[in-house]
């Protein structure tokens, strides 16, 4: 068996893949996991150093109920279906998910009319149990909301999830089911061949029958490598403030304001890990790299947040961040085989609710591939469950003692804000598609996610990374390829003459 695997590995690039998925965000990883159910040779290629390094790492983390999307669109279909898939999916993959429900609040009669329209639209889309609640009921359920609110649309199927945890879990499970993941390998060239396509991905050349373009903010550029240009991604930035766990239960549901035609507005919500999030803004920007937060954006977050939660303690902020929506003209998701290039499938323009819709988008892609290939054969031995990371502090005293006896590294706390042990960090490094960077560890086990944002634990995590990966500590990066943190020992620089 070992010899057979070795044969496959050394033959590497000469081999023909059935499917090459470009982009390891939530969409690419959901497709990879879905395709790993079938007898297919699948590779997932990512330009960055980790899974979920694009938009999937910076969004509101809401599993939307599905009343926003226009009935009949791909957005509406995949949102509602995706939402219904979340409980089982997150249970199978041991990913944090809470179906806490959501409110859209109205401050005047005009906004109540919008709530009525949203309710009708949601019902057409198939969203269950939508209700418009009067002020008294809303304030009874959420006493910290402004008393200027006059009604709210209640969607009990709305929820929250750990977005990068889910993408990482999907990738891990896909790998367990035979998918190959190649990181640090930007796709820069795609040529047509007799059997399909030849792809230049970093230093690798991949021959493949089918291509699935899930490159998020770069999906237009990847499309244009081989197809005629027919859509353009317009990055739209959303800025956020993230707050300390001491205010994590300020409200219990996701609180939306009445939406505008461009965005769902500023949202206030708890996160699955007990922090609190307020944002995002919505501003078109020129480039897919404009991820900085701005004074103007964060002032808007504050103003709109205080409108709904007038006494919210903004001094509990621990960090701010921004994410970019990959918008396209027309507004709907693009999920289709390209007309003039058979076997090339674009999955593009996946802005919100792409996180919610991803599991259902994966099913759409499977349907397209079924049509192209004439049918896919299911594996007999698909592993549907994935063991999640151990959260030491959530264990019972007996379980903790047992674990420390087996591995004393679980008795050593490295991140004091989040109480993350060395054992958890080592596990995060050695899992399938393990963390290789400081942020990769943060996203897997939350070391550095707390109040000090890694101020204390970052050097310790770097030491562990260097030790476990057997590399020099100066080669450990924060996130992207060149985000080095150390240059060498202190006082080693020669004095300039
Ligand atoms: C502010 C904001 C708030 C949002 N809130 C929500 C929400 O609450 N709920 C919800 O459902 N959705 C939400 N969304 C939308 C959701 O985050 C996105 O739809 C989703 O993350 C898109 O995933 P993706 O996999 O398509 O893109 P990405 O996560 O960006 O993944 C694309 C990947 O492709 C890689 N790539 C690009 N070019 C190449 C190349 N040439 N070669 C190899 N790899 C390449 C990138 O590095 C990246 O990792 C929000 C989005 C934003 C910006």
UniProtKB/TrEMBL annotation:
Name of the protein in question: Glycerol-3-phosphate dehydrogenase
Domain BFD-like [2Fe-2S]-binding: 413-467
UniProt source species: Anaerobranca gottschalkii DSM 13577
SUPFAM superfamilies: FAD-linked reductases, C-terminal domain (SSF54373), FAD/NAD(P)-binding domain (SSF51905)
InterPro entries the UniProt entry points to: BFD-like_2Fe2S-bd_dom, BFD-like_2Fe2S-bd_dom_sf, FAD-dep_OxRdtase, FAD/NAD-bd_sf, G3P_Oxidase/Oxidoreductase
Pfam families per UniProt: DAO, Fer2_BFD
Ranges of residues in domain FAD dependent oxidoreductase: 18-367
């Amino acid at each position: 068996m070992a010899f057979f695997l070795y044969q496959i590995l050394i033959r590497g690039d000469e081999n023909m893949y059935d499917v090459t998925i470009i982009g390891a965000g939530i969409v690419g990883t959901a497709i990879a996991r879905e395709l790993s159910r079938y007898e297919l040779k699948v590779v997932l290629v990512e330009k960055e150093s980790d899974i979920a390094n694009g938009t999937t790492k910076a969004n509101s983390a809401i599993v939307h109920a599905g009343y926003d999307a226009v009935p009949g669109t791909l957005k509406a279909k995949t949102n509602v279906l995706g939402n219904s898939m979340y409980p089982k999916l997150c249970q199978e993959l041991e990913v944090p998910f809470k179906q806490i429900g959501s409110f859209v609040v109205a401050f005047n009669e005009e906004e109540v009319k919008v709530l009525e329209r949203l309710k009708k639209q949601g019902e057409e889309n198939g969203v269950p149990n939508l209700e418009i609640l009067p002020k008294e009921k809303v304030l009874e359920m959420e006493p910290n909301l402004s008393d200027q609110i006059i009604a709210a649309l209640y969607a009990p199927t709305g929820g929250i999830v750990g977005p990068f945890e889910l993408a990482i879990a999907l990738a891990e499970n896909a790998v367990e089911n035979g998918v190959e993941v190649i990181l640090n390998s930007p796709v820069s060239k795609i040529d047509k061949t007799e059997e399909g396509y030849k792809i230049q991905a970093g230093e690798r050349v991949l021959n493949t029958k089918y291509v699935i373009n899930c490159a998020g903010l770069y999906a237009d550029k990847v499309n244009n490598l081989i197809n005629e240009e027919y859509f353009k991604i317009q990055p739209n930035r959303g800025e956020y403030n993230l707050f300390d766990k001491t205010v994590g239960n300020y409200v219990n549901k996701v609180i939306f304001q009445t939406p505008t035609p461009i965005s769902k507005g500023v949202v206030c919500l708890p996160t699955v890990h007990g922090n609190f999030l307020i944002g995002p803004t919505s501003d078109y920007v020129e480039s897919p790299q404009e991820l900085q937060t701005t004074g103007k954006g964060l002032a808007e977050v504050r103003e709109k947040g205080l409108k709904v939660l007038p006494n919210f303690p903004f001094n509990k902020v621990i960090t701010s961040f921004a994410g970019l929506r990959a918008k396209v003209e027309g507004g709907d998701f693009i999920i289709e085989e390209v007309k003039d290039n058979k076997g090339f499938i674009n999955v593009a323009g996946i802005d919100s609710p792409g996180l919610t819709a991803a599991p259902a988008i994966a099913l759409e892609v499977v349907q397209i591939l079924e049509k192209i290939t004439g049918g896919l054969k299911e594996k007999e031995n698909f592993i549907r469950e994935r063991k999640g990371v151990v959260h030491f502090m959530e264990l019972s005293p007996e379980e903790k003692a047992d674990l420390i006896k087996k591995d004393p590294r679980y008795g050593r706390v490295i991140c004091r804000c989040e109480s993350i042990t060395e054992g958890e960090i080592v596990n995060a490094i050695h899992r399938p598609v393990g963390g290789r960077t400081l942020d990769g560890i943060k996203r897997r086990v939350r070391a550095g996610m707390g109040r000090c944002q890694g101020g204390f634990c970052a050097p310790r995590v770097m030491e562990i990374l260097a030790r476990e990966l057997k590399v020099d500590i100066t080669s450990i990066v924060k996130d992207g390829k060149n985000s080095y943190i150390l240059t060498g020992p202190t006082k080693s620089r020669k004095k300039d003459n």
